[in-house]
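Ligand-bound model needed. pyridoxal-5'-phosphate.
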Amino acid sequence: MPIIIQGMIKLIKSTFYHEEDTKKKLTSFIKNAEFLSFGQECNEFERRFANWQGRKQCIFLNSGSSANLAIIQALLNLGKLKSGDKVGISALTWSTNVMPLIELGLQVIPIDVEIDTLNVSSDLLRKTIRRHEIKMLFLTNLLGFCDDIDKIRTLCRQEKIVLIEDNCESLGTIYKGSKLGNFGLASTFSFYVGHHMSTIEGGAICTNNEELANMLRLVRAHGWDRNLAEKSQRKIRNKHKVNSTFYSRYTFYDLGYNLRPTEINGFIGNTQVPYLDEIIKKREDTFLEIAHKIYNQEDRFYPIRYDHIDLVSNFAFPVVCRTKKIRDELVQKCNGKIELRPIVGGDMTKQPFYSKYEKRSVLKNSNAGLIHNQGLYFGNNPELTKVEKQQIISIFTK
Ligand SMILES: Cc1ncc(COP(=O)(O)O)c(C=O)c1O
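Prediction:
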């Protein structure tokens, strides 16, 4: 049964879509499974998710944060990034979008976001490029929205900047006929509870680039080649003159971690992928029903623009108040009725870890800072009832 705390509209209402049925299937799967570490179910999920996303390769990992760490490590291993390189990030994002960059010796260059889309635009990227020679852009597609990501892609191609999308919050959004997550060299996803689709914990990286996918499979598991296709295994073994089966399973080719999901996550993923379009449609319907009623109150809230997006797929409604006072009053008003939180992780440059480790680049008078101070969000999950939607509308409209 979905978790409903009496009277309170929670950010997360259930662990899975069709929770009771999924848990029943999961119990029986665990009882009968011979192995529960990475195997058939995970491989099948990779195939299905790549197919759903429309990319050739999917690498399934144990979280979206692990996906972000793995992609940076893989780019370093392949020499597409070098220690000390500058990497642009959306200032409004999640901690583990930024942390792997610092951990792996890259210089973080925060880029402000547009107040009406909450995302980095090609204009803001262009301004950054004038001051910094960035080698990579780790672009966050925030809460189902984007700005002109097609122009960002063109600019990155012109300037030879590697574009990677953190799509952990925008699974299913369609912009100019393409799903977000298909604009850059690769994109990361999160299947944490409360995101669009849950495998409890889980994440993925999608790409069309086979060399990168192979490196990601090494990075995901110890730096060994066990999850590569036979042809790729032969190639890497020949290159390193590994010709004994005694050693081939224990040869570690490049820097890696253990970021593997389990068969439990894979099995859940396989039960949830078929529901994905339905989940997204429900959230889109709710978003379209409520959003304009809230965003129309331009005297109280900054309007959020989404008419350039074909399908907005989010799991939360962001609201940016004109003043901190309005935001604080809403927080009071929602107390015990609607669970609220800041917009994602807020302005990363205001977080303690950022000022401790990355003192070189700060943003002043930024939109990200304003959103940090005056923003909030509440959940948009597929189990919201009619009564709950009415309650939200009545609290957020005068
Ligand atoms: C933009 C973004 N990236 C990465 C993550 C991390 O995902 P996970 O919780 O699966 O580690 C999140 C989490 O909410 C996120 O919002």
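The chain is about 40% helix and 15% strand.
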